[in-house]
Design brief:
By secondary structure, this protein is α/β, with parallel strands linked by helices. Helices cover 46% and strands 11% of the residues.
Length: 331
Amino acid sequence: MLSLKENVIETLKHGKPDAFVNEWEPFPQVWGPMTSYLLPVGPGGGRAVNPWGVTLEWGEGEPGAMPIVTDETKVCPDVTRWREYVKIPDIKKAMDEADWSQAQADAEKFRAEGKFPMAWIFTGLFEQCHYLMGFEDTLMNLLLEPEAMHELIAEIAKFKKLQVEILIEKIHPEVIMFHDDWGSKLNLFMQPDVWRDFFKDHYKEIYGLMKENGIITMHHADCYCQPIVKDMVDVGIDIWEGVIPTNDIQKIKEDTDYKLTLMGGIDAQLIDRPDATEAEIRAEVARACKDYHEGGCFIPCLPYGGEGSIFPGVNDIIMDEVRNQSKIYFG
């Protein structure tokens, strides 16, 4: 029987796993001072301003914090003058002064348990742009002010690379999950060539740095990204976490020569409800495992960018049913 780590590696390399990787089971999350520094508000914590000057709100019963971008709170109202408005935080100084002892102890504990300590980087390159100026301005500026947007995105990318370097220095995670949603449920937010022009090379550098240090690269995007899946392989993504069923998951495996492991596939809007029955939840998990098991490179999971379900009990049933489905497809 394979260990948790061995089973993950076999899944990633289109090998011979002996069970489905069960959601986040091998990927315990290491929370450290970087998270609280950049995300200064917790569940139900109301509003706070992060070091970029972005106003964030995490309402009661909501799954995560969201940027509040209005005429009053917008950090960058004119991208051609972004150097006047955008003050890039001195994260190196802040993290050198922070206490990493608990995060380091957690990472070593998870390693000793035979798991992959996993760190997070929230708000990727596109998301950081719309946190600073809003969705509408971001998308319009990509077309109307490309020179200024290239400059700003390059500075954001430097900041993100520095985050990776700090995480490697402080805790050396074995997986880093990078958040950046690039689309809606049905489409990318921009044409593929626009994404390639502004973001692809920067992601190749960021993920290249991770891979140089032996880190499994996980990218969260719970949206439709099918037109750029080959690019996702090109930039070095090992696991696309958050893949939703509006993507043709089996075709993506074929199109990427089974080089991209797809984590998700379970339709959260169908079953992560307060009135969902156990039978409904198990049926959706069974459907995803049946539809997407062929050829491997699939981890059944809710598409959220982290462990658990919105409504209590749903995820427990999902994980139990994944174990049942492993007996069917792996013996």
